[in-house]
Amino acid sequence: AQKVTQAQTEISVVEKEDVTLDCVYETRDTTYYLFWYKQPPSGELVFLIRRNSFDEQNEISGRYSWNFQKSTSSFNFTITASQVVDSAVYFCALRGIIQGAQKLVFGQGTRLTINP
Amino acid sequence: NAGVMQNPRHLVRRRGQEARLRCSPMKGHSHVYWYRQLPEEGLKFMVYLQKENIIDESGMPKERFSAEFPKEGPSILRIQQVVRGDSAAYFCASSPGTQYNEQFFGPGTRLTVL
Predict the structure, then answer these.
(1) What is the pLDDT of residues B73-90, one digit of tens each?
(2) Does residue B66 carry a pLDDT above 70?
(3) Which residues make Cβ contacts (< 8 Å) with residue B40, sequence separation at least 6?
(4) Min CA distance, B92 vs chain A (Å)?
(5) Which helix (H) or strand (E) holds B104?
(6) A84 pLDDT band (50/70/90 cuts)?
(7) B103, B110, B111: best mutation site toward chain A, by most A Cβ within 10 Å?
């Protein structure tokens, strides 16, 4: 079965600190896709990134960066110089190619609070 | 280019009533997915539909829940005889086809059962 684990339920840091959100996944598919979504207090889901299993290059987008390590089945998300507007619940998700090919499997989410 | 639209955004029902949640996918998208988010939990897949077909309903509760995506009009998630445990946020997502991997989410419908 596919599974996504976000062990950190809540994280609270002071503005301008760096923070890393952990994501560990399980799948038997050899090809799969990993995603991060942001859910701000307003409730909508905002797509942040998609990573293919065959592309292990890390990615940086402004203050956001993602570290994909296939060897440890992890896809961690780092926010550098955090800001109050980054406060949200962040979800990591997995989508396989064979097992349940069309559905996203979400982790439980990490509630991130950035304090001024 | 409008995104995925869901209505109503908030829905209040009394126990035993019916709830109908509507989802209009993005223009050009023929694949629709429904997810449920219980309070303080992640999203759970419910059902995947293409026009006039249910492709995967492995996440749907066996009773009281049904979904459709007719040839014309929005996708409908229907919950009959609602109970308090149905209170949740229901998200719809759409995609253009199987070769695409992004699912674009709507703003969600928050169902409260009194």
Answers:
(1) 999 999 999 999 999 999
(2) yes
(3) none
(4) 10
(5) strand B104-105
(6) very high
(7) B103
